[in-house]
Amino acid sequence: MAPWSEPSKVMKIPYRQIAGNSSKDKVSFYTLNVDKFRDLAEEVGVEALPTYVLVKDEDVKDMIVGMKRQELEKAIGDWSK
Length: 81
Prior knowledge:
The longest helix is centred in the first third of the chain and has 16 residues, at about 5-20. The chain has helices at about 5-20, 40-45, 70-80, and strands spanning about 50-55, 60-65. It is globular, with a radius of gyration of 12 Å. It contains three helices and two strands; from the N terminus they run ααββα. It has a two-stranded antiparallel ribbon. β1 and β2 (about 60-65) form a beta hairpin. It comes from Setaria italica (Foxtail millet).
């Protein structure tokens, strides 16, 4: 996420809703300011905003780019089983 990114701003509320509705013992949610942590964003492969990276057992399992709430919800549901 980035404070200047309009798509990131638009997805802020849905992202928080998804995080609030997810099982806390199975899923953790973090946001990363790409301006402050550019190296980490590049390491993970962030090329556009917003980008959602799903990690399980320290491996990247899925990456969703863009304002795709339904796709994000489905991926979280699939990987949190």
